[in-house]
Amino acid sequence: MEYVGRLYRPPSEARSLIVQASFGCPYNTCTFCSMYKGEKFEIFPYEYIKNQLEDAAKKYTWIQKVFLADGDCLYMDNDTLLKIIDDCYRLFPNLRQVNTYGTTKSILKKTEDELRELKEHGLGIIYLGIESGSDKVLKNIKKGVTQEETIKAGKKVVDSGIKLSVTFIAGLGSDTLSHEHAVESAKVVNEMRPDYFSVLTLLLEDTAPLYKDMVEGKFKYLEPDEVLREVRTMIENIDVDRGMFSMAHASNYININGTFPQDKERLLKQIDYALNNISNAEHHMKWRG
């Protein structure tokens, strides 16, 4: 496979064949993100993608999952996307699933019938980076969408039968909006009922616009205990009858996973245990002087 620039994928797609059908992000103004800064969004021609798939099929006959990269393949017209998905299943006899990233805007551009078509042809999961459910936080990070639009997009995916995996970023509201960030993010989960919902912890690279704000003291990184309390508030406010929660990303201070609603109390206890250990460690360090 040939790749352009830095390639990104969800952690759960580690064993997938990564097919770069597009490059970059069509929006690319989020202040916390440095992934495609300075790069122009591009959708690769269908024939190029088809040739890449055909070349890969000669070498990787065992492939069971394909991930269509990069930032937002849902911006493709549906006919082209359907052909690519069909090619994947035609060329890889053991294939079980084709997944891709999506954004609120690209999902809203699709009609309900188009999303159902994608489901019927074998699109398994759409990964949606929500980041925050708070309109104030979304405005601050220049996400370009509102909570209402995000919920509408998520519901469209769920209603189509395509599995929806969403992510939020702990610490994105800093200390001033931490509580609102947590509560409103939980509200989004409750409204859209995604199949998977996960939390990452904010890490800023120096090319992200928000990094400059942090250096200048305009934005405060949360301490580990503040992050955990924020996530605890979010989990405490989630009330769904299904869905898998994950905090397994390398950016997080603890690694916890569970299925809602049955594991909710266990998740809260695990966070409390971590918070208690942080408190004890800090007390011990002060006692040692």
Overview of this protein structure:
The protein has 289 residues and is α/β, with parallel strands linked by helices. It is 43% helix and 17% strand. It has ten helices and ten strands. Strands 1-4-5-6-7-8-9-10 form an eight-stranded mixed β-sheet. Strands 2-3 form a two-stranded antiparallel ribbon. Helix 2 links the parallel strand 4 and strand 5. Helix 6 (147-160) runs parallel beside helix 7. The longest helix has 25 residues, at 264-288. The protein is globular, with a radius of gyration of 20 Å. The protein starts with 16 loop residues before the first strand and ends with a helix.
Q: Helical stretch count?
A: 10
Report helical residue fraction.
40-55%
The biggest beta sheet, please? 8 strands, mixed
- Bin the strand percentage: 15-25%
How is the secondary structure organized here?
Elements: E1 17-20, E2 22-23, E3 42-43, H1 46-59, E4 65-69, H2 78-91, E5 97-102, H3 104-109, H4 112-121, E6 123-131, H5 135-140, H6 147-160, E7 163-170, H7 178-192, E8 196-201, H8 209-215, H9 224-237, E9 244-246, E10 257-259, H10 264-288
Parallel strand pairs: 1-4, 4-5, 5-6, 6-7, 7-8, 8-9
Antiparallel strand pairs: 2-3, 9-10
Please supply descriptive tags for the structure shown above:
two-stranded antiparallel ribbon; 289 residues; alpha/beta; disordered C terminus; 10 strands; 8-stranded mixed β-sheet; 10 helices; 17% strand
Task: Put the structure in a nutshell.
This protein is of the alpha/beta class and 289 residues long. It has helices at 46-59, 78-91, 104-109, 112-121, 135-140, 147-160, 178-192, 209-215, 224-237, 264-288, and strands at 17-20, 22-23, 42-43, 65-69, 97-102, 123-131, 163-170, 196-201, 244-246, 257-259. The chain starts with 16 loop residues before the first strand and ends with a helix.
